[in-house]
Amino acid sequence: MEGDVMDKLDSKAAVCDFDPIAGSIPATKVEITVSCRDLLDRDTFSKSDPCKYFYLTGVSHLSQFGRTEVIDNTLNPDFVRKYILDYFFEEKQNLRFDVLHLSSSSSSSQDFLGQVFCTLGEIVGSPASRLEKPLGFSLCFHVYRGIPGKKCGTIILSAEELGNCREVVTMQFCAHKLDKKDFFGKSDPFMVFYRSNEDGTFTICHKTEVVKNTLNPVWQPISIPVRAICNGDFNRTIKAEVYDWDRDGSHDFIGEFTTSYRDLSRGQSQFNVYEVVNAKKKLKKKRYMNSGTVTLLSFTVESEHTFLDYIKGGTQIHFTVAIDFTASNGNPSQSTSLHYMNPYQMNAYAMALKAVGEIIQDYDSDKMFPALGFGAKLPPDGRVSHEFPLNGNIENPYCNGMEGILDAYHQSLKTVQLYGPTNFAPVVNHVAKYAAAVQDGSQYFVLLIITDGVISDMAQTKEAIVNAAKLPMSIIIVGVGQAEFDAMVELDGDDIRISSRGKLAERDIVQFVPFRDYMDRTGNHVLSMARLAKDVLAEIPDQLILYMKNRGIKPCSLPPPYEEPGAEDHDHTLTTPI
To answer: 507-527 burial by CB neighbour count: b if 16+ within 10 A, else e?
Structure first.
């Protein structure tokens, strides 16, 4: 059985995919869908709000690969967010899934609901590539110890090979005369789309927003990768369910209909008006016709561009670093300071800078990077600055590569006085000013902020981030030291999009992580830096793609001719922040 599955998955491997360094041929990419059933209830007055973390384990390390969205108030979640993995037949790809209950809006407040270990081959090799396993609480590999007298629930993992389709379909739907479900109002309808599987089951692929208090909703346009809705099989059945949203999570089923990608591709026509049918209601009532109708209003398809499409087309990524020089870091001459320069090893600031910068620098042609500091008193007059150049040159703050930034950082520690407060808004606005000048897709800006403490200008920083979210720009914040960084989580819009003065950020552009979470227990700094870089840089490609998509910017077919810039260009250019 497993051999047949592997033969099928191997059919798309090509010799050109072979990586002589890794020594492995990726047979294919597979999409992992996750559901849970009968989870433990950790809420006092409602059901748990589960979120799943997924870890990919290797021979000697464990790294977080992704996490699902949070689903409110349910013990039987079907997660929409998928995991896409390279599948290798010849490797044992260990996976770990942790299920957490988020008890508040802060991701730091969590209850552990259960854990499961398996391999990717175990999922793929299961009947219909669908694996069910009991959740356990043990941290020991392949040993499950639940709470005595209680079952922790089960996890359902499904794998499907992905086709090479890179198109995205955008559709808009409306409904007419849906059933009234609310006692005091009408209904709050939303739709859930599923694609059919080979074994006759269905996999969730999209949810619309909720339209409040109407029986005739018009939903916002939805964009779904074609591979997600039909995986390239245009005749595959697509099921749509219509629900009335309830605050307690017990959404009322209104009805459903089925269609296919081929039918939907006809666009707005009489063929794409669907009766919403509730089978149970139909059995009970002889004169039952339907529970309303759903109409396709529009249907468009466009190619999905990747991060590498833009890089190949000539998009340059410009890197700026901003380092915290506030007094809470401690006296740099003392070994207890976070800025202490140990002659035998890098401090946390240097490690974070080197880990992120050495990867980003490969996407910047001239390797010249502005490096800023904030929160220090500067000579000769002792004025406090929150955006001073580390090399001391206001006219030309560029440093040559990572070594140049590290040298300027070490020199600054000898000349400035650590002070305060911890203000982020000035450096965010500094980079945003230059990002605003180049919005044609030719350049993208990444700001790395390394800090030891709690932010002092939260309101101003939130406003700066909301304004920057519409620009070609991303922000990485790395917290060093042992301070509590709970307030920083608010800036990272993974779960709740950041807002300021009632204005929501157009994109999530901030990734915050505490460096201590990535420190290797054996003291292997190379491994610590690799873990940090992988996590903080993982969101940059999607953030860049979303900016380009929102602006309708397509990759250039050929990169523009490159001319080596002269040193004098750096004093005046707007292509990189100064």
So the answer is: bbbbbbbbbeebbeeeeebeb
Which residues 6+ apart lie within 8 Å of 286 measured at CB?
Answer: none
Distance, in Å, from the CA atom of 181 to the CA atom of 186, rounded to the nearest integer, reads 6
What tens digit of pLDDT does each residue of 135-194 get?
887 544 344 444 555 778 999 999 887 766 678 899 999 999 999 886 677 889 999 999
φ, ψ for residue 449, nearest 5 deg: -110, 125
Pick from 536, 492, 578: which is nearest to 356 by CA?
Answer: 536
Tokens of 305: 């561009």
Cα(360)–Cα(536) distance, rounded to whole angstroms? 11
Burial class (CB in 10 A: 0-12, 13-18, 19+), 111: middle
Q: What are phi and psi of 405, to 5 degrees?
A: -65, -45
Q: How far is CA 248 from CA 245, 252, 254, in A?
A: 9, 11, 17
Give the position of tokens 């998955």. 9
In the chain, how many H helices and how many E strands? 12, 28
Looking at residue 225, its pLDDT comes to 87
Q: In the predicted model, what is the mean pLDDT of the chain? A: 81
Supply the pLDDT for residue 260: 96
Q: Model's pTM, two decimal places?
A: 0.60
CA–CA distance, 462 with 470 (Å, rounded to integer): 13
**What is 158-190 written as a DSSP string?**
EEEE--S--EEEEEEEEEESPPP--SSS---EE
DSSP code string of 384-409? EESSEETTS-SS--EEEHHHHHHHHH
CA distances to 388, 390, 427 from 382, in Å: 13, 16, 20
